[in-house]
Amino acid sequence: MSWLKILGAVIVGALLLTVGILLGHFAIPKGGNGSGAPSWVQTVGRDLNESLLQSFMDQVESEKIRENLKALASQPHMATTKGDEELVKLLLRRWQDPQIGLDSTSEDVYGAFLSFPDPQRPNSVAVGVPGGGIKIFTTRRSEKNVTADQAHADVVQPYAAYAPPGNPRGRLIYANQGKRSDYQELFNMGINLNGTIAITRYGGTGRADKAVNGAEFGVAGVVVYTDPADINDRRASEEETYPNSWYMPPSGVERGSYNGYFGDLLTPYYPAKEFTYRIKESEIQGIPPIPTQPIGFEDAQTLICNLSGHKAPASWQGSLGCSYHVGPGFRTGGLFPNTSDVQVNVHNQRVIKNSSNVMGFIRGSEEPDRYVLYGNHRDSWVHGAIDPSSGTAVMLEITRVLGKMLKEGKWRPRRSIIFGSWGAEEFGLIGSTEYTEEFYSKLRERSVAYINVDISVFGERPFVLPALLRSCCTIPISAFTAGDGKLCSPPRDVSHSRPSPLPGPESLTPLHPPYSLGSLGAGSDYASFIHYLGITSMDIAYTYDRNKTSARIYPAYHTAFDTFDYADRFIDPGFTSHQAVARTAGNVLLRLADSLVLPLNVSDYGEKLDELYSAAAQGDFLDKLNANNLSLGTDPLKAAIDRFKSVAADFNQRITKLKKEESPSPLQIRMVNDQIMLLERAFLNPQAFPNKYYYSHVIWASKSSDQATFPGLADAYTNALETGDWDQVRKHLTIVVQAVESAASTLEAVA
Amino acid sequence: MSWLKILGAVIVGALLLTVGILLGHFAIPKGGNGSGAPSWVQTVGRDLNESLLQSFMDQVESEKIRENLKALASQPHMATTKGDEELVKLLLRRWQDPQIGLDSTSEDVYGAFLSFPDPQRPNSVAVGVPGGGIKIFTTRRSEKNVTADQAHADVVQPYAAYAPPGNPRGRLIYANQGKRSDYQELFNMGINLNGTIAITRYGGTGRADKAVNGAEFGVAGVVVYTDPADINDRRASEEETYPNSWYMPPSGVERGSYNGYFGDLLTPYYPAKEFTYRIKESEIQGIPPIPTQPIGFEDAQTLICNLSGHKAPASWQGSLGCSYHVGPGFRTGGLFPNTSDVQVNVHNQRVIKNSSNVMGFIRGSEEPDRYVLYGNHRDSWVHGAIDPSSGTAVMLEITRVLGKMLKEGKWRPRRSIIFGSWGAEEFGLIGSTEYTEEFYSKLRERSVAYINVDISVFGERPFVLPALLRSCCTIPISAFTAGDGKLCSPPRDVSHSRPSPLPGPESLTPLHPPYSLGSLGAGSDYASFIHYLGITSMDIAYTYDRNKTSARIYPAYHTAFDTFDYADRFIDPGFTSHQAVARTAGNVLLRLADSLVLPLNVSDYGEKLDELYSAAAQGDFLDKLNANNLSLGTDPLKAAIDRFKSVAADFNQRITKLKKEESPSPLQIRMVNDQIMLLERAFLNPQAFPNKYYYSHVIWASKSSDQATFPGLADAYTNALETGDWDQVRKHLTIVVQAVESAASTLEAVA
């Protein structure tokens, strides 16, 4: 071989080696095993897969939701009853299904303090001869059966849960909505309320307050009914009501829990386990101190339309077809002799019973220690087709589709997802509250958001705007369309009519556009998540068009008429509204679970703060502050809010920049996500409201005042007007400033 | 060319190409820019660099610490005085130095509620003719100057901070340590305490309690002194004391804050900013209700050795060189006529003054949103060489070496480091507490640990074990050697003699080996970090060999003798103890900031829980529980602790496994680190101790009971023995079970 050939061979060899090195280095990606970049480099930065999301949406079927609802509402399933226990099994079966189930499930049991009527001795309201035992009128034991699917041996008779047993007897008065001001007005008319029985209508105040307020004036027993003016758009006849329309029939009675707090009443702040310390029943606050019983408007008419005394004020009049008088006692010439007494017979029994939460889990692939929570209660008062089964039917359809994708290996969320079917909500959000108590620390540290879908669809078609979805979140999801509507940001029209045993739907403020953050109140299971744990929460439903109905709530609410037939024929024939809710809620859930950067817009909190501030910085409110040396013109509250808004804008810019990076560091992403997640927590102050169990969120806490500013400030202000205690106003200004500054510090660039 | 040759060339060529590909793929690491794995893949998993740590240790110089101390203790620097303000500037100058400074600094100012004597009208304790103004004896205005560096115009006269002004006059009694039981014993002797002046010695109870307890018995004024038996190993003469030894001279007076809580007294739970709501002075709890004044033992001898009345019990006797009698009034034949009264003259003034925290920051490279905190207070009572400047001198040496490494580009920590020079600690941990109040949310969410080095070296050489380091942490750092001793796990011998205005050194329980976790109490600035925020805390110092001295604390504590000369000649000639403390504290700091997996051992909490449980599960304690239907034999507390231990063991196994992985996912590492970090938070319960400001840590809260179990349980038990209120015992059992279950849930495998 010549040297030239050797040289040529060496050059060719060197070239081949070089090409090989280059190919090896640049053309072949390093695998995860052995040397080279580890496998997680590929997955750790994965973002939401939009086509997978679309596939989820496509798979959500209205017919499946209808089937779910039929199964769920097939029999009464009041908390801890046989019907409830059977649904526990149904949930576990579905979530453990090898084809469509979740990763794992659990059943968490709490010993809940409940209250039931005595099946042997039905409650009643009776009119009798004074001093004697002869009853000349007694209210119905329960609703009339107007459809076949309504009849069942386990239909619980109407009662006021937690009202004490007793048989008070006295002259009847009509006390409007049982507000303190209503009783005061009767007192001002010169009526001696001592020993009377007050008949009141639902609305205006929480259920329990009607008895709590009455007792303060000496009232001995309370009767509650639903006026057709408040629920039926004034329709009162059988022809105009269910099964001929969605309106409440004359025999319909709204059951409910008569308590002013939420969570198990004997174990505030601690999970109601067997070992848990329980307070004495006498220490429970906010439940009726006197016997109380709800009745239908048919029976209410018999009582109210026969009352004597002054004519009731115009705003107290309703649609029972007569002029309302206030009593006391019955009029001459009416159905009852003028001297007749009314007796309230309550035989309720309080008992600790085991109530279950059914929990389902999907493990997150990249951030298993971040939780997206989704829940609804399982227990109803009777068949509960709408409340709560319309929500459970939607949840089961969501888990069916997700479970299928999971089991087929097509999907695993970035973050963990926890589904909760809560027990004993109707008695005061017990299951969800006990859950937050038991797992307080880890939920507080790890939860990204809680999604609640209780009543999915509030109104029948003519009464809802087709595109209307109920708002919503404590931090809004960045605008996106879902189903057939836009969610949360900005809502087109939102109303706040979610009924609630606490504090009652009418005390919730309606929202008006433009409005970015909705006040959730405490009407469903999100209450302890937002108020106690400071977890961003949302409640999703179709709601009403308030131009078309004035009903407080869908008319079959908490009655024996809330059946599958009612849902299928009136609320949502075809179940397309349910389908839209399922798609929307599932969409929100997937975005929260899978998005690389959490899809929550922190800036909208700035607007909310501005709005709450404005309410305090004008008119009488500001004048009174100034007059008491609490000048709000050059104030630290304004400065704190301005700082928050500026810091939030910077934060959004940093996120935009981060999203543009080709491959941002997973710890950088985690950092901004933690800032978003923990923003809500920065508004918590466990010292802010020492007299209100659980409420510690400075922006969203409940308030009694009708001032539209920060709740603690509003209540302190209203109180100071009466008592002159302006120190508490200053204290609550400090609390708000501190919370807003904390929130700003949370979003500020770290270190 | 033959086919053979061609084949050979092809084979060789293919081999070369293959070798090239293999080399290119495996032998040459992919760069971070352009194609291939992103740059953070290399840095995100970086662990502590041991040789860098060694280099840090090597650079820590004893002489630099000595120089720091000389500068820091050159003049008195009581909170908010000129001397303090000059140290603020010194700190800022050092931390802003271009060669040895930190990334950034800030000065945070709070309006602190303080208390000072009136320079125009010195406080005193005087003996006078009854009814007249003639004084026949008056206590010294301040300490005698025994060395040159002690003299300074700004030496504050001894006083009891927060004691109210007044001039009560009455007959003197000796009340031992001023415990409630001491006054009770005097009362039992038949002495009418009404209107008397009580002289008491330091120890046995918190400073303020001596007056609080006395006032309950009608005492009108309180005098406090340090008995040579308690501080000087009984040495009392000038020859035996400083400047001839480390013992307190006869004129020495321990100053101090007389308050029972910590943090700014007018703004509990809120930072003392200008806008902050302040409670009324009359609402402050835990400060002396009657004039109180500390004096030296020379003056105390004049008063006590002339008392009449019963001879004091043996345990009340001290080392003033006479037999102590209890009074009331002086004996015939003594220095004072039997009828002489004692008058306590206090002219203290309460005032809100601006006090600064100086903060220094080093930004973390990978996890900037995780904080390792390190701090000490800056303010002293007089020159404060030991308390607190020995700690500040150490901190400045640590920041010098770290700052140098940082500025030279040799090092940046994985996590952020925050240094704090706290203001107004001596008045009740004010600066550190206000800091935790202002930044509550982000500190709670992001802080890995807080390291406190206040008094670095407690005793002079003969009195400390050279290898002894004071314990320590609420979660122990996994065993490692540092300086010349082992830290925390397991400590060889640890004593708990850190003095404290709250609740007083003697009420702290000494620790005995084997003991893994120490109870920090509330004696220095770690208090709000551990008790309020639930941040793992530690306090590092050389402490005593209790076989060699019985001194409550180093004898110059809070006196005018706590000077550089005292430190240089007696406490630590050569400053090698200081050096060891600096190396140890810096070592802990670097390990916490740089270790990939946090070097905290969660399992040791299991031992602590066992120990607290054992104290409740035996003897009288258990018998009483059983007698009151609180059986602890088959109990949920045992089950919860067992679950915790099992979960902690599993957790450690997962960590071991994770550490063995070649390149674990950064989010997996972050997950376990968050579990370690948040374990301490799981023990918080803001509802547990409603009457104790800030205390919310169920394991480490303060207690009054001497039962060695969980603090809330111990106090409830002791109270139940008196009142029969066993419900509170059950409640605190629930609180403990819930906290332990929460802690277990935090460590449990996620999802």
Automatic annotation (TrEMBL), chains A, B:
It is found in: Apical cell membrane. It comes from the Eukaryota. GO terms for molecular function: aminopeptidase activity; calcium ion binding; carboxypeptidase activity; metallopeptidase activity; protein homodimerization activity; zinc ion binding. GO terms for cellular component: apical plasma membrane. Residues 170-256 form the PA domain. Residues 634-748 form the Transferrin receptor-like dimerisation domain. Pfam families: PA, Peptidase_M28, TFR_dimer. Its cofactor is Zn(2+). PANTHER family: AMINOPEPTIDASE NAALADL1, N-ACETYLATED-ALPHA-LINKED ACIDIC DIPEPTIDASE. This is Aminopeptidase NAALADL1. The gene is NAALADL1.
